[in-house]
Amino acid sequence: MTEVLSFEDAINETAGKGKRHLLLGNGFSIACRPDIFHYGSLFEEADFSNNPQLPKVFDALGTQDFEAAIRALEAGASLAPLYMGGSAAASTAMLDDARALKEILLTTIARNHPDIPMDIPDEKFWACRRFLRHFLAGDQAGQVFTLNYDLLLYWTLMHDDNPFSGVLDLTASDGFGNDEDDPEADYVVWQGETGAHSARVHFLHGALHLYDSGKDLQKYTWVRTNLRLIDQARTAIDDGKFPVFVSEGTSVQKKSKIRHNAYLYQGLKQLAANAKVVKSTFFIHGHSLAQNDDHILARLGKGRFGTLCVSLFGDPASDTNKEIIARAEWMKRLRNDRYPLALRFYDAETANVWG
Length: 355
Hints:
Layout: E1 4-5, H1 7-13, E2 19-24, H2 27-30, H3 34-37, H4 42-45, H5 54-61, H6 66-83, H7 89-111, H8 122-136, E3 141-146, H9 152-158, E4 176-177, E5 187-190, H10 192-196, E6 201-203, E7 206-212, E8 217-220, H11 222-225, H12 229-238, E9 242-245, H13 251-259, H14 262-275, E10 280-285, H15 294-301, E11 307-312, H16 319-333, E12 342-347
Parallel strand pairs: 1-12, 2-3, 2-10, 3-6, 10-11, 11-12
Antiparallel strand pairs: 4-5, 5-8, 7-8, 7-9
Helix pairs in contact: 6-7, 7-12, 15-16
């Protein structure tokens, strides 16, 4: 029978063992709002009933990536007249479908996410900051990596106007700063590798507040815009920007998208670098250790840190948890014998992430 610790016991066991790092999965968000975050992917949630031809676009491209499909339609609309005798019908149809896809993307995001931070009670944010202080405060402060593209982690880190000043203060740099050409803009921009070295929070699969403008990566901030998520996203997309997030596909497909984006790739390198530090520990919270994230999990398995603590939700003997345990054992087998990996499992509910 697998021993399952409380979260407090797992924290105590890792005391004095170097930096403590955290990798978050979707269970982190589900624990906050199970009514809206309990889904597999945006593509699966999207309603194509008014545009039944659109899934064929994804099939033809071999992807479930909305941005790839929209850009392909817009590019095709520009080229179609060259190959169709100057007819504008195909171009018009492609542009109409691109606009429809943008709206489907926006409505799917909005349906599966709170509009504004105030939709989450303050007490939940403060509870989450208590959880995060084990990884972002004190002598063992390390780094936090998330595979979620929702805004709950970002909103929590931003929610520092709490009555526990000095107790729940966190070191939460994410590598973004003012645009030197427009310091009063509604957004801040990624500072590149220079800023990345001081970053303590990494969105490994991007997030809904990060947008590719073509010339830089912009982070939209609630305190500067006061816009609902849906309005912020619509403004950005109408301006030709797309949220940077990796939500679909196999591990190979996700890895390919990460390698083609400097910000995402830098976050992956930061995780790999921390995994090679012998005197350090990693916690994985709210993740099933599914194979479609092997591009992340294998780097931890092949690292050198000493202890990996993995959360389990519910009965340790459930099929889901037995699979998580088996996958953790697979990660352990990836290790070089010179750097053995100790596995510990803890009860996710005892972490009281959201109170």
